[in-house]
Amino acid sequence: MSAKNLEEVLQAAGNPVDMMRNSQIGAYVYPVVAPEFSNWRSEQWAWQHSAVLFDQSHHMVELFINGPDAVKLVSDTAINTFKNFTVDKAKQYVPTTPYGHVIGDGILFYLAEEQLLYVGRAPAANWLMFHAETGGYNVEVVKDDRSPSRPMGKPVKRTHWRFQIQGPNAWEIIEKLHGGPLEQLKFFNMSEMNIAGRKVRTLRHGMAGAPGLEIWGPYEEQDEIRAAIVEAGKDLGLIQVGSRAYPSNTLESGWIPSPLPAIYTGEKLKSYREWLGADSYEATGGIGGSFVSDNVEDYYLNPWELGYGPFVKFDHDFHGREALEQIDPATQRRKVTLAWNAEDMAKIFASQFNPDEQPYKYFDLPLANYASSNYDRVVDAGGTTIGLSMFTGYSYNEKTALSLATIDHEIPEGTELRVVWGEENGGTRKTTVEPHRQIEVRAVVSPVPYSRVARETYHQGWRTERVG
After folding, report:
1. 261: closest CA among 312, 302, 300?
2. Cis omega (within 30 of 0) on the bond before 98?
3. 206 falls in which pLDDT band (50, 70, 90)?
């Protein structure tokens, strides 16, 4: 009899690590949006040097949370404080398990009194839905799921289109669209603007290192809004960014998007695993990379390891509070960027053209991840594992292969470490893995964000140390 929920899937599989390291789900897909509008190099270049239009309409879950207990629900399930959360503000939402491990993250929008909107990946959305259904909260939750990874020609419809206008020329384009000056609100504050005769909701953002906006509205209006933006930006260097380049922007800005949701063990989470479907993200996702442990808990991470330590506020009760209060932040691994050695990268690519030897694991451009969650070993000169490399690709702006990692706290910037690239014994059975051999790639411990532009112009703490 087939499994009905995640708990039954795990019981049938035996070892969750073996199950996920050999998942047949394939690569994580950013759906619907064209892979490239020009070419991914020019699209990356534009977010630092002119302006870009990001189309975020399809790859994220939207979860509408309405009712008197909406703020209480998110506060009870997040490490963040919500004392300063009011209408027309947004906040990064980071939930942890009762054991203090991160489940995922996303963005919460305070749309109106008793009306919140979560936008992000599935793990945090699922956690919110579970507690909304089982926790006795006076809320109504409506889920608009991400678009299908492979629509296979069928029409796709969402509640909202969601765009971002970013880059050095973004604000000039925004004011041109609006028809006059527009106030640059504080970071993560919301307002409205005019586009093509319509009122559009806005969020002050800075994803590409300069003042910009995230904007959204009814899905039916997306074509006319997009056309107006493209027309307004054509003389200011605006380039539409495709799904190939889009996710690689985080290599420069420093956000680790997809740690493994830490929910596969623990009696306190059994009811949640029984609630999650056998076809859920958590039941079908894959783990890729050179880090291998039979214990799935070795893949779990706490907030400090992912750079969320400053968000942890013990001014409210939340799932995981007691566990996090026992942690000494000063001793935890810390988030860094690793800049990969150019000569070693050349060896990886050269191996693809040598018919006499098995090649190294293919390094796809601009994003080299090949699983839902990526875990490569980071080792010191003696071969001891001192961290995990978790999101990998190439920045045309920096002309460097980069990865986002969490490493032992005492290792300073400038230290040369090694990332073990490729999987053991020729590779697992994932559909994204071809026969290959491993290589240790030299990598220098570098700042987060890596991009000088982003480091110097981002709102204090966005992806670094922002409090709240």
Report:
1. 300
2. no
3. confident
Q: Say whether pLDDT at 459 is over 50.
A: no
For residue 246, what are its two tokens? Answer: 């889009």
Asked whether the whole model's pTM tops 0.85, one would answer yes
What is the amino acid identity at position 361?
K
Q: CA quadruple 300, 305, 308, 312: dihedral positive or negative?
A: positive
- Report the C-alpha gap between 263 and 258 in whole angstroms: 14
Provide the angle, in degrees to the nearest 10, between the axes of the packed helices 222-233 and 170-178.
Answer: 120
Distance separating alpha carbons of residues 195 and 161, to the nearest angstrom: 14
**DSSP class of 187:** T
Q: Which residues are 240's β-sheet partners?
A: 53
Residue 452 phi/psi, 5-degree rounding, is -60, -40
The answer to whether the CB of 150 falls within 8 A of the CB of 29 is yes
pLDDT tens digits, residue range 63-87? Answer: 999 999 999 999 999 999 999 899 9
Distance separating alpha carbons of residues 424 and 299, to the nearest angstrom: 17
Phi, psi dihedrals of residue 182, rounded to the nearest 5°: -130, 130
- Gyration radius from the chain CA atoms: 22
For 134-186, give the DSSP string. HS----EEEEEPPPPS--TT-----SEEEEEEESTTHHHHHHHHHTS----PP
Contact between residue 297 and residue 100 where contact means Cβ atoms under 8 Å apart? no
Cis check for the bond before 449: say yes or no (omega within 30 of 0). Answer: yes
Burial (CB count within 10 angstroms: exposed 0-12, middle 13-18, buried 19+), residue 85: middle
Burial of 366 (0-12, 13-18, 19+ CB in 10 A): buried
SS3 214: strand
CA–CA dist 115, 202 (Å, integer): 16
Question: Can you spell out the DSSP letters for 220-264?
Answer: GGHHHHHHHHHHHHTTTTEEEE-TTTGGGHHHHHT----PPPS-S
Q: Does residue 266 have a pLDDT over 70?
A: yes
3-state secondary structure of 206: coil
Secondary structure (DSSP) of 348-374: HHHGGG-TTSPPBPP--SSB---SSEE
Determine the Cα–Cα distance for residues 468 and 163; give it in Å rounded to an integer.
Answer: 25
